[in-house]
Design goal:
Layout: E1 3-4, H1 10-13, E2 20-25, E3 33-39, E4 45-49, E5 58-63, E6 68-76, E7 90-95, E8 98-103, E9 110-117
Antiparallel strand pairs: 1-4, 2-5, 2-7, 3-4, 3-6, 6-9, 7-8
């Protein structure tokens, strides 16, 4: 499993309250899925995870992100999402504690969601 994120010492900075939370339940082919979060202003990939190794397992990922406009991308290399024929997987994305996406896993190769954190008003 590969997972990277910018870690911030909340006790030192006093800033982050888990702006980004991703919960994933893998299907029976977890090695086919991966995800990333891209900063829409810079084009830089800030967070990424997967592929996974355990089928039908739940993974939670938290990160502190600056105010801004982002895109979350979920990918499945076999183009069948994480639902149905290979077991029932799903993912949920939260920003600032509010659910932004509750996916049933039926997305084919890719599903993208734009989200805004903080006071950024440049969202589409």
């Amino acid at each position: 499993m590969t997972f990277t994120l910018p870690l911030v010492d909340e006790a030192e900075s006093g800033v982050c309250t888990d702006d980004f939370l991703l919960i994933i339940k893998t299907d029976n082919k977890p090695e086919e899925m991966h995800w990333d979060v891209v900063d829409n202003e810079s084009g830089e990939t800030l967070l990424k995870g997967g592929p996974y190794s355990l089928p039908q397992s739940v993974h939670t990922h938290r990160a502190c992100l600056s105010s801004g406009n982002y895109t979350f991308n979920m990918h499945d290399s076999s183009n069948d999402g994480i639902c149905c024929d290979n077991g029932r997987g799903f993912y949920s994305l939260y920003k600032d504690g509010v659910e932004v996406v509750d996916s049933n896993g039926q997305y084919g190769y890719n599903e993208s969601t734009i989200f805004v954190l903080g006071n950024d008003t440049s969202a589409p």
